[in-house]
Design goal:
254 residues, two-stranded antiparallel sheet, mainly alpha, 5% strand, elongated
C-alpha cells in the first residue's frame, strides 16, 4: 500500500511509520503528541472482590442448654441459702448481745388507736396535775383568797383545754373509746368541783373542813382517772402496743 511520505513520520519509540495525524503508533502503541513519543498509560487492574464471607452459627445442643439452665437454678438456690444463713446469723447476734435467748423479743410500738390517743391525752393530764397540786396546796392553808384564786385558775384551765381534750381522745373506736369517754366525764366532774371550791373560798371558808369535801373529791377523781388509764393500757396490749412506753409521763402504776 502506497502512503504519501509527507503525511508520515517515524515513531521515535520503535521507528515505524506513523501518520502525522495519528495519536498512537500502530506498531507499538506509543502515544504521538507534537511528535513527542510517550509511553502508553498503564492499565490498573480492578481487584477481584469476592462475595462476603459467610458466618456460620454453631447451633447449641439441647444438652448444653439443659446444663446452662441447671447451673442457673443452682446459682439461685445457693444465693437463697446464703441470704437465709445471714438472716439467722444476724438474729443470733441480736439475741446474744441485746436479748435473753430464753425470752421473746420485745414487740415494736405500733401506736394503735388506744396508744395514739394516750400520747395526745398524757400532756393534758400532766397539765391538770400541776393545777390540782396548786389547789391542794392552797387548800391546806388558811388563805381563802389564795384558794379561790387557785380554784378559779384551774377551772379556767379546764375550760380552755376542753376543746383540745375532745380533739385528743374523742372518737376513739372500740373499748378504748368508751374508756376515754370516762376520762372526759372525769374532767367535767373536776370542772364542777372546782367551781364549788371557788364559791366556798370566795365566801371566806378555808382551811381544813371548809373545802375538805371538795378537795377530797378531786383526789377521788384523780384515782378514778388513774384506774381508767390502766384499763386503757390493757387495751393497748391487746392492740399490740407496750403501755409503759405511753404511760411513763403520767407516772401511773398499774
Amino acid at each position: 500500500m502506497t502512503q504519501d511520505v509527507t503525511t508520515l513520520r517515524h515513531c521515535s519509540a520503535c521507528g515505524g511509520p506513523v501518520d502525522v495525524e495519528a495519536n498512537f503508533c500502530p506498531a507499538c502503541g506509543t502515544r504521538q503528541i507534537d511528535g513527542v513519543p510517550r509511553e502508553p498509560e498503564p492499565v490498573v487492574p480492578t481487584p477481584d472482590v469476592g462475595p462476603p464471607p459467610v458466618v456460620v452459627e454453631t447451633p447449641v445442643s439441647p444438652a448444653a442448654a439443659s446444663a446452662t439452665a441447671a447451673w442457673l437454678v443452682i446459682g439461685i438456690l445457693v444465693s437463697a441459702f446464703v441470704l437465709v444463713f445471714l438472716a439467722l446469723l444476724t438474729a443470733r447476734v441480736l439475741l446474744r448481745d441485746g436479748h435473753d435467748a430464753g425470752a421473746p423479743l420485745a414487740r415494736p410500738t405500733t401506736a394503735g388507736p388506744a396508744a395514739a390517743a394516750m400520747d395526745r391525752f398524757a400532756p393534758i393530764e400532766a397539765g391538770w396535775r400541776a393545777k390540782h397540786a396548786h389547789v391542794a396546796g392552797e387548800g391546806a392553808g388558811a388563805d381563802s383568797a389564795g384558794l379561790a384564786t387557785a380554784a378559779g385558775d384551774a377551772h379556767a384551765w379546764i375550760d380552755v383545754n376542753s376543746r383540745d381534750l375532745d380533739a385528743a381522745i374523742g372518737g376513739v373506736p372500740g373499748a378504748a373509746g368508751r374508756l376515754y369517754q370516762q376520762l372526759i366525764d372525769v374532767y367535767a366532774r373536776r370542772y364542777a368541783v372546782l367551781a364549788d371550791i371557788q364559791s366556798t373560798a370566795t365566801a371566806g371558808g378555808t382551811g381544813p373542813g371548809a373545802a375538805a369535801g371538795q378537795l377530797a373529791e378531786l383526789n377521788r377523781l384523780d384515782s378514778q382517772a388513774a384506774g381508767t388509764v390502766c384499763a386503757i393500757g390493757r387495751v393497748m396490749t391487746a392492740e399490740g402496743d407496750q403501755p409503759a412506753a405511753h404511760l411513763a409521763s403520767l407516772g401511773v402504776v398499774c
